[in-house]
Design goal:
Blueprint lengths: L6 E2 L14 H8 L3 H21 L14 E5 L5 H10 L5 E6 L2 H10 L5 E5 L6 H8 L2 E7 L8 H11 E12 L3 H11 L7 H5 L11 H14 L3 E9 L7 H10 L9 H21 L9 E8 L4
Parallel strand pairs: 2-3, 2-5, 3-4, 5-6
Antiparallel strand pairs: 1-7, 6-8, 7-8
Keywords: Methyltransferase, Transferase
Pfam families: Methyltransf_25
GO molecular function: methyltransferase activity
Length: about 300
């Protein structure tokens, strides 16, 4: 299954920045829709499924496996959870599919119902303690291409730890380079869009844009150790090229732009023009749509029994 990837074995400076839980950030979250997330998640399905297959035998199987519960944090519209994650899991009591967007959860519950899947709201940067009191801890915690949108990834990892039962395992996949990140950085340098710095920076983690494999692997290990977890694997893969048209790229860059939900119709038109001009230059620079050299970080960790 690893024909989609090239595995590296190397790693990063430790970054720990303050997460800003602002009204601006909350407004962006509340306006996310299943349609825009589904476009992105469908593109990632093959990549995540291949990685899951590669690590399939790395998880512990316990005698009371059927009584355990697992969770997928950042399930979005639910397609990957239902189509790929659930079929690859051993028998369990339930699989919680969690997301901060009520719209996503409603869509997922309607589109992908299953007796083993329970769709529940969870903000990984919010009140995780309350969620644990209500739902209990989990023997496995999964998260796919979600942590990359968290600015304070160190705090995010600590909150993931709260979800884990003693001896529980954590598995996450995150993208470290993206056209989104490049666009956001260009917007921060632009006099008009820089006024939305807070909203933009909330979607720019400290490791954004890093391509050095050694630094990425070290960064992942540092995140695990700062959360008092045991690192089982911290690996870096080359993300396979994605074929898409210029118009598709423009739509994607607009669909998950944190500024878009905050502006009026006039500014939305300005943003469309700005993104279109950016994409035109990008399209020429990347030789007719050839993807950038992107890296995926995979982390598998365990919570100590003590």
């Amino acid at each position: 299954k690893l024909h989609f990837f090239h595995l590296h074995s190397t790693l990063p400076p430790r970054f720990c920045e303050r997460w800003r839980s602002s009204k601006c950030n909350q407004r962006v979250r509340n306006t996310m829709t299943p349609k825009c997330s589904r476009v992105r998640s469908e593109r990632y399905e093959t990549a995540n499924a291949a990685i899951l297959d590669a690590f399939n035998n790395a998880f512990e199987i316990c005698d009371d496996q059927a009584q355990q519960q697992f969770i997928d944090v950042g399930c979005g519209p639910g397609n990957f959870t239902f189509k790929h994650l659930l079929p690859r899991l051993p028998p369990c009591r339930r699989l919680v599919a969690a997301d901060y967007s009520e719209n996503m959860l409603k869509f997922a519950a309607k589109k992908y119902p299953h007796p083993k899947i329970e769709y529940l709201p969870l903000d990984i940067m919010g009140d995780v303690d309350r969620f644990v009191r209500e739902q209990g801890q989990f023997q496995r915690v999964y998260s796919f291409f979600m942590l990359q949108w968290v600015r304070d990834q160190s705090q995010g990892m600590k909150n993931f730890r709260k979800l884990m039962a003693p001896g529980g395992e954590f598995f996450t996949v995150l993208l470290t380079t993206s056209y989104f990140y490049d666009l956001f950085e260009v917007m921060l340098e632009h006099p008009h869009w820089a006024k939305y710095r807070e909203a933009i920076e909330n979607f720019l983690p400290a490791i954004t844009g890093a391509r050095d494999v050694r630094s990425l692997r070290k960064y992942a290990r540092d995140l695990v150790e700062m959360a008092d977890l045991i690192p089982l694997a911290c690996e870096v893969f080359a993300y396979p090229p994605v074929k898409r048209t210029k118009d598709e790229l423009i739509r994607n860059l607009l669909s998950f732009n944190p500024v878009y939900p905050l502006i009026n119709d006039e500014e939305k038109e300005e943003l469309r023009k700005f993104v279109t001009e950016y994409t035109e230059k990008l399209w020429a620079d990347t030789q007719e749509g050839k993807d950038m050299d992107r890296k995926v970080v995979v982390v598998h960790a365990q919570k100590p029994f003590d």
